[in-house]
Design goal:
This protein has helices at 2-11, 26-37, 54-57, 62-65, 80-83, 103-125, 165-184, 209-218, 235-247, 264-272, 288-298, 304-313, 323-329, 336-349; strands spanning 18-21, 42-46, 66-70, 88-91, 130-134, 149-150, 189-195, 197-199, 224-226, 229-234, 253-257, 261-263, 284-286, 319-320. The chain has 356 residues and is of the alpha/beta class. It has a single domain (2-347), classed as NAD(P)-binding Rossmann-like Domain (Rossmann fold, 3-Layer(aba) Sandwich).
Length: 356
């Protein structure tokens, strides 16, 4: 907060609104909340009528400084009017689903064409100084190598329409954004945030795909503890990272955005301490070489893309270097265990999980 306070006076917060695409999303809603708290004017894009988002319209400062506008990633030119007159655009909108019918039309088209469309609108606007894009760890790797320490230089080269298609959509979208900047030299720069699994409290009623992972562990979707590690980052830290990447003139390139990594066993142990009923938590431990082989076999019975995800992540340790974001943006991450516990509390609050 001190960081923001200093930057507020350094940059004398602009009268021009910051545009946040996909404002209804889990991450974007926190970005909108923080921007309003810092005194910015915000234009958020949504797909339904603005009045259908009371959780955004009732945020502190929203009445005076938040405008919601309809825009769709699949409609060329849809963002032209929305970004006109803005200096900064935070582009978070992208479908986040693991299991889709048609990966090309459901994931890749909106992610890639949508990113190009938003950047094209920014170029036409002529007023934009910087675009901050929400990419993902998915654009860095889709099958972590246990012996490697991942950082901003890493690119996912393995995903395809058939293999982890959500990962593919994020990789292609981020590549398309960098290509756009290189080829068109649009007069604004690009900074990219690459979060891992984002957890924490939700401002709206929808269940995000990332928090669904925790809900599923509590709800009996996973009968066994698997050898899987997740890099975890709190949604409030992800929001701050986007805003600091916007405010700090010297921010550049990609930022791997994750706090601690937790093994599924550690998460299950933590969930045992939560207030929520626990009888559906995984009880069998299928870790180690034999356990992972069994899990991979059983994953064949899961929906195609879930099965693929399990087979590309089970039995792998996860090491990454988050020093760039800590050093350059000054992020100090909320402990992963705090985010997990607060996610469970929040899932109960919104009725996604039943209390004991
Ligand atoms: P989310 O809650 O599902 O938000 C996605 C947003 O994108 C929603 O506002 C959604 O609008 C919008 N959207 C989807 N398709 C669209 C379209 N055709 N036109 C316009 N808007 C569209 O997911 P999230 O977790 O906040 O994710 C936000 C961003 O972070 C995504 O780019 C995602 O890939 C990235 N990310 C998320 C995580 C994570 O763990 N949560 C990790 C890394 C990266 P509707 O509300 O109308 O559906």
């Amino acid at each position: 907060m001190i960081n923001h306070f200093v930057l507020f006076f350094q940059t004398m917060i602009t009268e021009k609104p910051v545009c946040v695409t996909g404002a209804s999303g889990f991450i974007a809603a926190h970005i909108v909340r923080e921007l309003l708290a810092l005194g910015y004017k915000v234009t958020g894009t949504v797909r339904k009528n603005p009045w259908e988002y009371p959780f955004l319209l009732n945020l502190p400062g929203a009445h005076e400084r938040l405008k919601l506008e309809k825009a769709d990633l699949l409609e060329e030119g849809s963002f032209d009017k929305v970004v006109a007159g803005c200096e900064y655009v935070i582009h978070t909108a992208s479908p986040f689903e693991m299991n889709v019918k048609d990966p090309q039309t459901d994931l890749v088209d909106p992610a890639v064409n949508g990113t190009e469309s938003v950047l094209g609108s920014c170029m036409k606007a002529g007023s934009i100084k910087r675009v901050i894009l929400t990419s993902s760890i998915a654009a860095m790797t889709d099958e972590p190598e246990s012996s490697k320490v991942y950082n901003e230089k890493d690119w996912n080269t393995m995903s395809s329409l058939d293999r982890n298609p959500y990962y593919y959509s994020k990789t292609l979208a981020e590549r398309a954004a960098w290509d756009f900047i290189m080829q068109k030299k649009p007069g604004f720069d690009l900074v990219v945030i690459n979060p891992f699994l984002v957890l924490g409290p939700s401002l709206g009623p929808s269940l995000s795909t990332s928090c669904e992972t925790i809900r599923d562990m509590m709800a009996g979707v996973y009968p066994a503890i698997m050898d899987i590690n997740w890099g975890i980052v709190d949604v409030r830290d992800v929001a701050s990272a986007h805003i600091l990447a916007m405010e700090k003139a010297e921010a550049s390139g990609r930022y791997l955005c994750s706090g601690d990594a937790l093994h599924m066993r550690e998460i299950v142990e933590l969930l045992k301490t939560s207030r929520c009923k626990k009888h559906s938590l995984p009880r069998i431990d299928l870790t180690g070489k034999t356990g992972s082989a069994i899990i991979k076999g059983l994953s064949m019975t899961k929906p195609k893309n879930i099965g693929k995800y399990i087979r590309t992540h089970v039995g792998r340790t996860l090491c990454y270097d988050n020093s760039k974001i800590r050093r350059e943006l000054g992020i100090s991450f909320i402990p992963a265990k705090t985010s997990v516990i607060e996610t469970v509390e929040d899932l109960m609050k919104w009725g996604h999980l039943k209390n004991s």
